[in-house]
């Protein structure tokens, strides 16, 4: 680690070791290792480390008046761009062989965004529930680089201004900005969680807290006992968050615990040796930390491509496949660090800033031009026969705009509008559940226009009473309102319950059915949709392209059939009407793939296209 003016900083191997504690949970989380279900917090740890190191490098030179903004950006470019653009090039080549034309068009936009350091902004606009899943976006992980690069654009300017205007109040000003950023992020996360997650202003505090640590705002801890207590507490906080948090953990906890944990480890280590510092300074920990940037860069495209092609994780025993993809990512990362990162930093370190920045601009322009070519060719549509390209277009047929109207499919409780979604009408049928229920509602409304179908649904919302311990906040609010407020006061003639059922939820259904029976409401339970391991339009497109009809049958999820039989038996035991979508889709064992000869039944692995919803609604035969 070098100061911006060329002077050396004291090297801290424990910080490189801390990088390993940041990257490994992220990779394991993305590879679906359950014991790291909160591994996403590693990105927060990275942010704190970056803020700390950048400030430690540039603050002395700013104070001494020898800081060069061009030199700073040169060093950032040499640190970030070589491995990044190598990954972008390799991923673009892989995408040509793996992604369908509509996916390729999305990839082109993400390529341009990643190359220009705005991928966090781009992906924040692609994060609705019905947008393309993360596992079809090879560059999704570059959002965090966008946050860091935007921070690097503004933070040196802040330090320069503070040094010039009020050097003695620099720490106080930065602390105030940190507090404002944290408060704003907490507030925005309540109504716009996607923006709170992706946008730099709401992540600024994570990097700036690291900066405050480098500026000595938290003092120096000289005593061995308090240093060790603080270091151990911080280390435990990171591990606790990585192993016990999950995708439903509230934003405030999901960010503050790992951030303050990482800060505690670094502040403790700045005062002297600690137990945690010695552990993090072990050679294996330091090595993983050294390759952590490349490890982060390369692991996600590899995971996406194996998922899209059905390789490794699908064709090998699942646990073995996960180990294979993580191991492969590690090897590629080590090679990237050795043959890309290190040579560029050393070989171009003496080049003048102008030459380096011109090279960076050329790489960015080339990437944007390549993205433009992909878009101009409709996602390189020439790679697929016309029929395959046409069916692949249904990957975008989610009908999400219609479902989300009036917040009837509510991603937050504030979006739901009861007066519009649940306006009481004689003989109305309420469709209640998750996104599967919302798509079924579309088909029922289209096929039976003379009947009234109301909708109350949300992402992953199971239509169960008193399900709070298992549900997202929006689901708790929605189901509490429907069962405790709306239905007792506005009895409908019929309720249809549908969701992406799991075995655990089947066992919790009887209490809900008893509640509806006590209200005198006829209930119909709709079983699971036939699912596939990969999006159905992709399977169909690949089967056409490769002339391999068996490819679709091999991608069908067998567990759904057993679950459907279990639900049918349970509902028969309870005397409740049950509709088996499995039987309607796969009569006599041969499964329907197209709803109308053109549109596939599903637009992803398990959600109905609009045509698919109408097809099944007709089969259900409501009177």
From TrEMBL:
Domain Acyltransferase: 14-313
GO molecular function, one term: acyltransferase activity, transferring groups other than amino-acyl groups
Organism: Rhodoblastus acidophilus (Rhodopseudomonas acidophila)
Keyword vocabulary terms for this entry: Acyltransferase, Membrane, Transferase, Transmembrane, Transmembrane helix
GO CC, one annotated term: membrane
Residue spans crossing the bilayer: 17-35, 41-59, 80-100, 140-160, 172-190, 196-217, 229-245, 251-270, 282-300, 320-340, 361-382
Entries under SUPFAM superfamilies matching the protein: SGNH hydrolase
GO BP annotations, alphabetical order: lipopolysaccharide biosynthetic process
Pfam families named in the record: Acyl_transf_3, SGNH
InterPro entries in the cross-refs: Acyl_transf_3_dom, Acyltransferase_3, SGNH
Protein name: Acyltransferase family protein
Residues annotated as domain SGNH: 417-619
